[in-house]
């Protein structure tokens, strides 16, 4: 299941062809005309057939162990990469990565509605143990486990997998998503939509291709009208037994751990990682590219702009440890 | 109308059977094997046939007058209850209540899409004075008053009542809800969904059964994409002539009074009570279990974490009286 | 295209009849019984056939150049208007304007779902170069440009115009809206709904008629579950190449310039103007009737309550220039 992909990459392409239009320096040995690249992947997931990218020091632990045969990076970061990884040094790592990714996935910069969907009443014999409402549309190769229930006016696009005993509400759209067992998705959720990723180039936004997925593990619950973006190159994910309230927004690549409680209208900017047993109060916001530890509590309305270590309670805007927040407020009285 | 229920309780059950699995102390007289319990209700609504629960000192006024024959509570609260009310003293009032409530309402911990709905064009003769858009699905025993207009792709589940001259938009879902006259619900609202209520027990979330309703009184208006949760045991309610802007989130059991103005993206955590003539600016948040008085003004973006007396203007995070907020900001310059 | 209207005004009416029920003073010459009024328009757009209204000093630049033959205003503002403009001086400019506007547009105070819509599979021959999903409903006179793609369960109401190469998601509703080329609207957006405009009069909300539109210029992108209100008398508008993330809320009459980046869950209260090249972080809020300059950066979670000049970076609640915010936070440590 964890290997399901929603788009197959074009290619393979020779590395030289992929980067022919980019201004770059190359460090490392190897004939660019002979290195075949099969896909663009994160540092963590890349194999020796893949190209990766490395644009922030926070990914250093993954960089030093990556198996990618080549990596787009900057001059200041290149030395964290393994010796046998070919370094392609550019000015704007994300822009170059987006350009190359677009060659593998020419349509993945936009979120095209799936045209393969069919009304479920014509194909419901394929899902004998599933209970369907009315006017449900399902794409090709969708899997739905036994005893799951799907509400009305819901669209489930191609290749989505839904486990057993799931409860999907009405007016929901799901795409690019792998869902475990006993998952609840309430009315109006939009799951697996393209994330907010683009690179502004001279009065024009170059869209970052989104080829990642959404992974919802067993026993996850999502409240009404939540929006969860698919990953850009990696995945967006929620761990077992984590519950989200209504109108929560999760941007691309955010990973939330197990047993978390996320209250209404919380927002997560892209690529942050949230630990296990984390509780977040209503309307709090978590900035992008942060690491929130295990057993963290974030007060309602807080704005988190820094990493938070394990077992910490924070509050405020910007969020600080609770004691500090209380003291600050007292001083201000 | 106010007696409409969306699920009938199982039972009755003998009290002893209901609490046989809970660690508890009993105070008061009566034979647990002979006391029949017909339902679980709030302190305020319980009759002598019902069991109630009392877990916070803020409900003291209701506790001292409850007619419940028995009440789940804690050692520190029990003495507020009437003498003739049997006290069932436990560690975790909400967990015990949830367990018992689940016996009466075995399916109410999840929000199952109503499978009784039918496309309205097949049953529109039942609603001769209502104007319908396309692809509308309506459940059993739904009532809709004359001259109401319903938009397209909308789902109205069983037993919902809608008054006269109402305007319901498109892509709306409504369940477990009683709606007065002249009510406007704009596109994309999700009304009556299960609230965010569960008790974390050892890496598992025990869902609190939701059997309450949403009550929208005459002349209420809801903006687009609002989410309003049904009550857990009591109701979620909005008074006459109160208007909500787009993307407002109301959690379970919140009660808003008359003539209020709630701007866009405001969020209410569970069980708070808002008075009459209250205005709340955009993106403000109100924590759970609070009491906001009449004629209160809450500035946009504020985070309210304390009760607010009548006729007060507050602002800030956490919200303080306006003068204090302005002084605080001046001092900080 | 920019002249498309979604409702034609009733009338014309003689000015005397329009204001016969209002307490007012008149300044200027002209026979009220002979002045014919064809429409109510903003100061900027009014012609000599129209009535306008002027209720805030911020609109002074438009007031002094208005071509309106008459204008509803207050005693303190009247002298900014041109000499040949008849001044109708009242206590509550918006209430009088709303009452008069309602005579021209008797149904525009409510957002009636369009009953002219038909399922697109019956009329898709009218759109030979458009790709449609399933269960799409389209109103009269809707135009959709070539190569556009429309998702499922989407409703597009009468007179909406959509350009070429647009991508509209599923479960979307669009009304009162003019859309350029290459525009992306993701799943669940509600575009062109009536705004949150009413005047509370003695326990009753007098709704302000909404007759404006939403204008989305070329290359705009909207994330999932955004809500964009139509203008009240003017328009709500987004300039070329501006991208909005998920769950953004734009109230009536807000105007956003070109090349802006608006992150998730940002909210705009009514009638503010945002310049070009503005970036706004997640969950920030912009109060009503403000002017945000060009090249402004607003930090995530900020609450903007004042005008912001060009080229300024602000953060905080209330938002202040970044340096000040950082200093303030340091002092508080």
Largest interface, counted with CB-CB under 8 A? A-B, 45 and 45 residues
Distance between the termini of chain A: 56 Å
CATH architecture of the largest domain in chain A: 3 Solenoid
Say what oligomer this is. homotrimer
Rg calc of chain A = 21 Å
Mean pLDDT of chain A: 94
Provide a descriptive summary of the structure in words.
Chain A has 333 residues and is mainly beta. Chain A folds into two domains: 13-104, MurE/MurF, N-terminal domain (Udp-n-acetylmuramoylalanyl-d-glutamate--2,6- Diaminopimelate Ligase, Chain: A, domain 1, 3-Layer(aba) Sandwich); 118-331, 3 Solenoid (UDP N-Acetylglucosamine Acyltransferase, domain 1). Chain A has five helices and 38 strands. In chain A, strands 9-12-15-18-23-26-29-32-35-37-38 form an eleven-stranded mixed sheet. In chain A, strands 8-10-13-16-19-24-27-30-33-36 form a ten-stranded mixed sheet. In chain A, strands 17-22-25-28-31-34 form a six-stranded parallel sheet, with no helix packed on it. The first copy, chain A, starts with 12 loop residues before the first strand and ends with a helix. Chains in contact: A-B, A-C, B-C. The A-B interface holds A 131, 133-135, 149-153, 167-171, 184, 186-188, 219, 221, 223-225, 240-241, 243, 245-247, 258-259, 261, 263-265, 281-283, 300-301, 316-317, 329, 332-333 and B 110-115, 117-119, 135, 137, 153, 155, 171, 173, 188, 190, 193-194, 196, 198, 200, 203-205, 225, 227, 229, 247, 249, 251, 265, 267, 269, 283, 285, 287, 303, 305, 317-318, 324, 328, 331-332.
């Amino acid at each position: 299941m964890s290997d399901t992909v929603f788009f197959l990459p074009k290619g393979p392409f020779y590395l030289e062809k992929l980067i022919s239009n980019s201004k770059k320096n190359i460090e490392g040995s190897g004939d660019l005309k002979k290195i075949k690249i099969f896909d663009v992947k994160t540092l963590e997931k890349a194999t020796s057939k893949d190209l990766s990218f490395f644009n922030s020091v926070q990914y250093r632990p993954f960089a030093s162990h990556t198996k990618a045969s080549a990596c787009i990076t900057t001059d200041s970061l290149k030395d964290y990469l393994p010796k046998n990884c070919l370094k392609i040094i550019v000015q704007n790592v994300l822009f170059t990565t987006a350009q190359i990714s677009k060659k593998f996935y020419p349509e993945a910069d936009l979120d095209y509605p799936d045209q393969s969907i069919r009304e479920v009443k014509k194909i419901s014999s394929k899902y004998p143990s599933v209970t369907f409402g009315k006017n449900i549309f399902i794409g090709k190769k969708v899997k739905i486990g036994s005893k799951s229930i799907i509400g009305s006016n819901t669209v489930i696009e191609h290749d989505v997998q839904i486990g057993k005993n799931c409860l999907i509400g009405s007016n929901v759209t799901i795409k690019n998503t792998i869902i475990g067992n006993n998952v609840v998705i309430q009315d109006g959720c939009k799951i697996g939509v393209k994330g907010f990723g683009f690179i502004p180039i001279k009065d024009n936004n170059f869209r970052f291709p989104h080829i990642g997925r959404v992974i919802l593990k067993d026993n996850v619950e999502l409240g009404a009208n939540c929006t969860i973006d698919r990953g850009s190159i990696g995945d967006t994910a929620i761990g077992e037994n984590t519950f989200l309230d209504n109108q929560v927004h999760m941007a691309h690549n955010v990973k939330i751990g197990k047993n978390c409680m996320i209250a209404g209208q919380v927002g997560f900017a892209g690529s942050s990682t949230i630990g296990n047993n984390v509780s977040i109060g209503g309307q709090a916001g978590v900035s992008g590219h942060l690491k929130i530890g295990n057993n963290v509590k974030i007060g309602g309305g807080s704005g988190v702009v820094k990493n938070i270590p394990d077992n910490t309670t924070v509050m405020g805007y910007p969020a600080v440890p609770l004691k500090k927040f209380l003291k600050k407020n007292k001083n201000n009285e």
